[in-house]
């Protein structure tokens, strides 16, 4: 569709008060940076927008941005523009806390330049580096960090000794730890030498220090560990100690993931600490 007839075009928002019925959908999505109001109207007519899981095709639809969930072409949209989402490549030697009681280096140095008060989603232990999300979206942080949600994470570990194909198979088949059996979703040998090997592990478990414990259990203690991926987010070329805001595509993918089954996280649980 290329446009709309003047006679069928909806009234401007200034002509009809937003309250108490809510705010016009096209106005909200334009404010969220999705597209101009006219383009959003075209999306509505084409059936590309859903509100709370239901396709919307009427141009006069109003919503409550604080409670309604909207997606465009299946990708979730954040309607609250005050929310901020940051990817950090946490360096080693930094604890995943906003204020460490033992005065160790913490995450405050990476959040002080942001006006919003940001918090970390889950944890990485002090000697593990890699991808950590910082946000002021408490709902998203709670869901993604909850162990029941099972977000997929990818790690690269440098370990002692020469890892064999049999060891890789054992990691994916399952090994017994003190707190029960665990299996990697995927495991790959990236490189090996006489003294050390590089192993890539994909896991959705949120158990405490699970990567280190798994590799130690198969006889290859970890000497270096980095998280390269968290759900749909990839660390890419972001240097250690640097941060950046998520792109619109990354944010959409992350929100879509978090809304997939947000009902699993009704109460706080153990957060990951790799």
Work out the helix count.
Answer: 7
Taken as a percent bin, the fraction of beta residues is: 25-35%
Q: What number of structural domains do the residues give?
A: 3
Amino- and carboxy-terminal Cα gap: 51 Å
Q: Which CATH first-tier class of the largest domain would you pick?
A: Alpha Beta
The CATH superfamily of the largest domain turns out to be Pseudouridine synthase I, catalytic domain, N-terminal subdomain
Which CATH architecture of the largest domain?
2-Layer Sandwich
For the report, how would you describe the main beta sheet? 9 strands, mixed
Low-confidence stretches: 1-19, 264-271
Total number of strands: 17
**Radius of gyration from the alpha-carbon trace, in angstroms:** 23 Å
Shape: elongated
The overall pLDDT, averaged over residues, is: 87
DSSP helix fraction? 10-25%
Secondary structure category: alpha+beta
Might you state the CATH topology name of the largest domain?
Alpha-Beta Plaits
The helix-strand sequence is: EHHEEEEEEHEEHEHEEEEHEEEH
Please provide a written account of the structure.
The structure is a single chain. With 274 residues, the protein is α+β, with helices and mostly antiparallel strands. The chain folds into 3 domains: 23-77, Roll (Structural Genomics Hypothetical 15.5 Kd Protein In mrcA-pckA Intergenic Region, Chain A), CATH 3.10.290.10; 84-149 and 240-256, Alpha-Beta Plaits (2-Layer Sandwich), CATH 3.30.70.580; 152-230, 2-Layer Sandwich (Alpha-Beta Plaits), CATH 3.30.70. It is 21% helix and 27% strand. The chain has helices at residues 25-31, 37-45, 108-111, 138-145, 165-173, 210-217, 248-259; strands at 23-24, 49-51, 54-55, 62-63, 70-72, 75-77, 85-90, 119-121, 128-135, 153-160, 175-177, 180-182, 186-192, 196-203, 222-230, 233-234, 243-245. Strands 7, 8, 9, 10, 13, 14, 15, 16 and 17 form a 9-stranded mixed β-sheet that branches. The protein has a 4-stranded antiparallel β-sheet with strand order 3-2-5-6. α1 (25-31) packs across α2. The longest helix is centred in the last third of the chain and has 12 residues, at 248-259. The protein starts with 22 loop residues before the first strand and ends in a 15-residue tail after the last helix.
């Amino acid at each position: 569709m290329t446009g709309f007839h003047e006679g069928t075009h909806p009234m401007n928002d200034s002509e009809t008060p937003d309250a108490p019925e809510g705010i016009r959908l096209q106005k909200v999505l334009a404010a969220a940076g999705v597209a101009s109001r006219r383009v959003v109207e075209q999306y509505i007519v084409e059936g590309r927008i859903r509100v709370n899981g239901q396709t919307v095709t009427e141009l006069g639809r109003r919503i409550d941005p604080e409670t309604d969930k909207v997606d465009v072409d299946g990708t979730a949209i954040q309607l609250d523009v005050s929310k901020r989402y940051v990817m950090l490549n946490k360096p080693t030697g930094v604890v995943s806390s906003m204020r460490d009681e033992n005065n160790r280096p913490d995450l405050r140095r990476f959040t002080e330049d942001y006006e919003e008060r940001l918090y970390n989603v889950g944890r990485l232990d002090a000697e593990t580096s890699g991808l950590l999300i910082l946000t002021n979206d408490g709902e998203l942080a709670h869901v993604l960090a909850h162990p029941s949600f099972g977000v997929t994470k990818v790690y690269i570990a440098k370990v002692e000794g020469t890892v064999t194909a049999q060891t890789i198979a054992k990691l994916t088949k399952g090994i017994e730890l003190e707190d029960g059996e665990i299996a990697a979703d995927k495991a790959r040998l990236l490189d090996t030498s006489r003294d050390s090997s590089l192993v890539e592990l994909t896991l959705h478990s949120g158990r405490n220090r699970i990567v280190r414990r798994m590799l130690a259990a198969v006889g290859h203690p970890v000497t270096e560990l980095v998280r390269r991926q968290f759900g749909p987010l990839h660390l890419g070329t972001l240097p250690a100690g640097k941060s950046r805001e998520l792109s619109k595509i990354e944010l959409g993918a992350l929100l879509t993931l978090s809304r997939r089954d947000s009902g699993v996280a009704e109460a706080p649980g153990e957060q990951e600490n790799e």
